[in-house]
Amino acid sequence: MPYPEQMVAPMRAELTTSGVQELRTPGEVDAFFRTDNDLSLLLVNSVCGCAAGSARPAVLLSMEHPSRPARFATVFAGQDLEATARARELMGDVPPSSPSVAVFRAGELVHFMPRHLIEGRGPEEIARDLTSAFDQLGRDGRPA
Question: Of 48, 90, 91, 109, which is the active-site residue?
Answer without folding.
Answer: 48
